[in-house]
């Protein structure tokens, strides 16, 4: 007797987009395609591209936006306040320290903390005069010279500690400093995996929270994928109404092996400011 196998195909109807829509997304590290001309992506990870910026600028935004937004809203649990609300008044009393503010994530974290989440005091670190100027242009209230004593600079500025610390670089050799700079019950978040064992015992006496942020976690684990769509949709409006400005630091005029190599060298040098983009031409 022949064996018949019935195959059922589940088709998801996509209603958020239509053919021809201009979109932006970070996608998933579970798929190949970082340097590909075309890539397949789950629609739940995609948002409509901001209308006021070019494709090249828009392409630079999602990965760093999602990282910073998830850290501020979902790790630190800072609410986005309505104008004149109690939440706005409460957020205005808070302080945040963003380590490596001139980088891709740091640049947008400064803007989000200041302009969207309305954190009262936004402080960041920088190692060079041009990096410090960049951070101020992003909206930082205070830029610490990372080559000098952080605690002394914070004290001189009249700040007695931080409610939130977002480290956009490795915390391996920084954690003790970050703990010392934290208020009791503060929250520290890292976005770069540690290379050395972390001694978190010192968190105990201050009742501190330490967490990780990795925007790739949702697509890799197929968990709450629609949050990427929701965040990018909100963010596009903030770009189009000029609440947020571009943080592109260097643009290569074409996608070539030579430019790819140069971009990687620049990124690895530790001197890159903002985001690095390639100006690919769209027909």
Explain what the structure shows.
With 283 residues, this protein is an alpha/beta fold. It folds into 2 domains: 23-64 and 218-278, Medium-chain alcohol dehydrogenases, catalytic domain (Quinone Oxidoreductase, Chain A, domain 1, Alpha-Beta Complex); 84-214, Rossmann fold, CATH 3.40.50. Helices cover 34% and strands 17% of the residues. It has helices at residues 55-59, 62-75, 86-91, 104-116, 129-138, 150-156, 175-181, 217-221, 226-240, 257-269, and strands at 23-25, 46-48, 95-99, 121-126, 142-145, 162-167, 182-190, 209-212, 248-252, 275-278. The chain has a 6-stranded parallel sheet with strand order 5-4-3-6-7-8, with helices on both faces. A two-stranded antiparallel sheet has the order 1-2. A two-stranded parallel ribbon has the order 9-10. β9, α10 and β10 (275-278) form a beta-alpha-beta unit. α2 (62-75) packs across α4 and α2 (62-75) crosses α9. The termini are far apart. The relative contact order is 0.16.
Low-confidence stretches: 1-9
The number of distinct helices, counting runs of at least 4 residues, comes to: 10
Query: What is the CA-based Rg, rounded?
Result: 21 Å
Counted up, domains total 2
Helix content: 25-40%
Overall average pLDDT: 93
Give the second-level CATH assignment, the architecture of the largest domain.
Answer: 3-Layer(aba) Sandwich
The spatial strand order of the largest sheet comes to: 5-4-3-6-7-8
CATH class of the largest domain, please?
Answer: Alpha Beta
Shape: globular
Distance between the termini: 56 Å
- The SS-based structural class is alpha/beta
CATH topology of the largest domain: Rossmann fold
* Main beta sheet strand tally, sense and closure: 6 strands, parallel
CATH superfamily of the largest domain: NAD(P)-binding Rossmann-like Domain
β-strand amount:
15-25%
- H-E string: EEHHHEHEHEHEHEEHHEHE
| DSSP, total strands | 10
């Amino acid at each position: 007797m022949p064996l018949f196998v019935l195959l059922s195909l589940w088709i998801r109807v996509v209603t958020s987009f239509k053919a021809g829509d201009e979109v932006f997304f970070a996608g998933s590290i579970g798929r190949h395609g970082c340097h590909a001309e075309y890539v397949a992506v789950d629609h739940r990870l995609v948002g409509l591209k901001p209308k006021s910026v070019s494709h090249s600028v828009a392409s630079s935004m999602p990965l760093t936006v999602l990282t910073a937004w998830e850290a501020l809203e979902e790790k630190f649990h800072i609410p986005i306040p309505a104008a004149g609300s109690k939440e706005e008044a409460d957020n205005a009393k808070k302080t945040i320290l963003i380590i490596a503010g001139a980088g891709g994530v740091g640049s947008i974290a400064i803007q989000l903390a200041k302009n969207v989440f309305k954190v009262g005091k936004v402080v960041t670190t920088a190692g060079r005069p041009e990096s410090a100027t960049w951070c101020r242009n992003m909206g930082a209230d205070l830029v610490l010279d990372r080559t000098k004593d952080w605690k002394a600079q914070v004290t001189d500025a009249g700040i007695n500690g931080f409610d939130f610390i977002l480290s956009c670089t490795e915390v391996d050799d920084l954690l003790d400093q970050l703990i010392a700079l934290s208020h009791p019950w503060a929250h520290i978040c890292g976005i770069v995996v540690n290379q050395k064992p972390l001694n978190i015992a010192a968190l105990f006496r201050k009742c501190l929270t330490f967490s990780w942020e990795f925007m790739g976690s949702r697509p890799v684990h197929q968990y709450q994928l629609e949050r990427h769509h929701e965040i990018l949709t909100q963010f596009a409006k903030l770009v189009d109404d000029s609440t947020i400005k571009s943080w592109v630091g260097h643009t290569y005029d074409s996608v070539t092996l030579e430019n790819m190599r140069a971009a990687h060298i620049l990124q690895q040098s530790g001197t890159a400011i903002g985001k690095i983009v390639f100006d690919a031409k769209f027909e």
